[in-house]
């Protein structure tokens, strides 16, 4: 198949590279010329494990190309995927579809009959209908418009794309279904489940999935607060409930609240869709509130660990990206925490294995250390914000020696109280027993 991928961000680039790896001929288009120049020179615009190898291999085979010239990509394509950003609109949280509709108007000039236009971007219910209407306004007929929402996770994007839990296709006609079946055929051979449904249902499925995962996170965070109040251990509660197949163990890690480029904006957009439909979604609404409050409260935990104030204190922060294995800083829990620390008069020394370049665009007046021990040097407290693997096996005695204040605030429950205390640290986890777990 010949595929045009419009938008070469996390989703567009990973999808484009993986489709090329399946054997399709993919042309990735972006209006950001520096991104395309970089890709043509072999420089990845994002940090994603395994991406560079798959991009280079397929570019060398001639199956994956990059351009800013939409016409050349679209004219020869049998399927045009739209993978541009759909950020939250300022003010109301509605999904901003400006990039999507701009892309549709542009591609309308070059698209040929019979082509399938497929939204991979996360878009509200009814966006496919609107795209069809725009294409008609531009004089384009006899093209199919389908929805194929993407469920990959940053940090594990290639593996997720190649071994998806499911593929969701929303199509209103046989042609679109046929094209998408052909594109994903290599995955059907691996028995990846495919759900073929209506376009509006597919659009809503993506929001429902992200909202449900956000609910799970906020739920366990509230249970963690309760654990702290009654001296119970949230790790064990999560395991105890997660072993129930109806619940499942994933997304039950108490922490500083969810961030990233998807959950915050997608929960808000779902609420906008619900409001427009006149149907309240109280669970999702509360989840958003719980998460916003939680992120704002993290500074209080650090403050409490330091006796009630961070003013004049030096705080080491480990992990800036919104989660491990990415340099994506969008809505990262580190942002409100560090901003509040600085606002309250603390000095911050941070370290992240890959997100420094992105973080430097966001924070001013904080230090960027070269490793975890350097971030801890002379600090009154060390706070683990993102659970990168390299923070899981720190030499805690060395950390204790580097620190001035011997306080470890572990917002990801990477360590046990007992091991931290043995190293001479005062330990504060999230939802952990005051005395540590009972000896087994
Ligand atoms: P991104 O911001 O990383 O990339 C979007 C790209 O589109 C940018 O490079 C931008 O320059 C380009 N672009 C915008 N308008 C264009 C146009 N008219 N022509 C060509 N290029 C254009 O975004 P992303 O994180 O890849 O997300 C894209 C969509 O996928 C969003 O709707 C998002 O919600 C969804 N999604 C994201 C993830 C994720 O983990 N990032 C996962 C699943 C779904």
Secondary structure elements and pairings:
Layout: E1 2-6, H1 10-22, E2 25-29, H2 33-40, H3 51-60, E3 64-67, H4 70-75, E4 79-82, H5 98-108, E5 116-119, H6 127-137, E6 144-147, H7 157-162, E7 167-171, H8 174-189, E8 194-197, H9 199-230, H10 234-242, H11 263-277, H12 282-305, E9 314-318, H13 334-343, E10 347-351, H14 356-360, E11 367-368, H15 372-376, E12 381-384, H16 396-402, E13 407-410, H17 417-422, E14 426-428
Parallel strand pairs: 1-2, 1-4, 2-3, 4-5, 5-6, 7-8, 9-10, 9-12, 10-11, 12-13, 13-14
Antiparallel strand pairs: 6-7
The chain binds nicotinamide-adenine-dinucleotide (NAD).
Biggest beta-sheet profile: 8 strands, mixed
Bound molecules: nicotinamide-adenine-dinucleotide
- Structure classification: alpha/beta
Number of strands: 14
Alpha-carbon Rg, integer: 23 Å
Architecture overview:
The protein is α/β, with parallel strands linked by helices. 44% of the residues lie in helices and 13% in strands. It contains 17 helices and 14 strands. It has helices at residues 10-22, 33-40, 51-60, 70-75, 98-108, 127-137, 157-162, 174-189, 199-230, 234-242, 263-277, 282-305, 334-343, 356-360, 372-376, 396-402, 417-422, and strands at residues 2-6, 25-29, 64-67, 79-82, 116-119, 144-147, 167-171, 194-197, 314-318, 347-351, 367-368, 381-384, 407-410, 426-428. The strands form two sheets. The protein has an eight-stranded mixed sheet with strand order 3-2-1-4-5-6-7-8, with helices on both faces. Strands 11-10-9-12-13-14 form a six-stranded parallel sheet. Helix 9 packs parallel to helix 12. The chain starts with a strand and ends in a 12-residue tail after the last strand. Bound molecules: nicotinamide-adenine-dinucleotide. Nicotinamide-adenine-dinucleotide binds next to helix 1 and helix 5.
């Amino acid at each position: 198949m010949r595929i045009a991928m419009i938008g070469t961000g996390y989703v567009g680039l990973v999808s484009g590279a993986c489709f090329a790896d399946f054997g399709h001929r993919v042309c990735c288009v972006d209006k950001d010329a520096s991104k395309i120049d970089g890709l043509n020179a072999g420089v990845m615009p994002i940090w994603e494990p395994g991406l560079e190898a798959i991009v280079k291999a397929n570019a060398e085979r001639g199956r994956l190309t990059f351009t800013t010239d939409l016409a050349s990509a679209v004219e020869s394509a049998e399927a045009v995927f739209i993978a541009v950003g759909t950020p939250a609109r300022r003010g109301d949280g509605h999904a901003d579809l400006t990039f999507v509709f701009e892309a549709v108007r542009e591609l309308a000039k070059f698209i040929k009959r019979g082509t399938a236009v497929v939204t991979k971007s996360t878009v509200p219910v009814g966006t496919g209908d609107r795209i069809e209407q725009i294409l008609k306004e531009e004089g384009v007929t006899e093209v199919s418009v389908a929805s194929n929402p993407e469920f990959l996770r940053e940090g594990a994007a290639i593996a997720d794309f190649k071994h998806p839990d499911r593929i969701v296709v929303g199509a209103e006609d046989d042609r679109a279904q046929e094209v998408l079946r052909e594109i994903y055929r290599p995955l059907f051979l691996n028995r990846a489940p495919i759900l073929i449904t209506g376009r509006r249902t597919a659009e809503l499925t993506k929001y429902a999935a992200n909202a449900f995962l956000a609910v799970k996170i906020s739920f366990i965070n509230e249970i963690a607060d309760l654990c702290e109040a009654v001296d119970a251990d949230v790790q064990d509660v999560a395991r105890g409930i997660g072993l129930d197949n109806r619940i499942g163990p994933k997304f039950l890690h108490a922490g500083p609240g969810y961030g990233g480029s998807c959950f915050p904006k997608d929960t808000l957009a779902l609420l906008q869709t619900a409001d427009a439909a006149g149907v309240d979604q109280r669970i999702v609404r509360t989840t958003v509130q719980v998460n916003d409050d939680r992120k704002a409260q993290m500074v209080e935990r650090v403050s409490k660990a330091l006796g009630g104030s961070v003013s004049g204190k030096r705080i080491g922060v480990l992990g800036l990206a919104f989660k491990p294995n990415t340099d994506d800083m969008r809505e990262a829990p580190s942002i409100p925490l560090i901003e509040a620390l600085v606002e309250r008069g603390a000095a911050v020394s941070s370290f992240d294995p890959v997100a420094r370049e992105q973080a430097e665009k966001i924070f001013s007046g904080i230090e960027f250390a070269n490793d975890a021990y350097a971030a801890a040097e002379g600090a009154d407290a060390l706070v683990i914000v993102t659970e990168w693997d390299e923070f899981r096996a720190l030499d805690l005695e060395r950390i204790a020696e580097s620190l001035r204040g011997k306080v470890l605030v572990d917002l990801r429950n990477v360590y046990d109280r007992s091991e931290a205390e043995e190293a001479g640290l005062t330990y504060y986890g999230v939802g952990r027993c005051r005395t540590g777990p009972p000896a087994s």
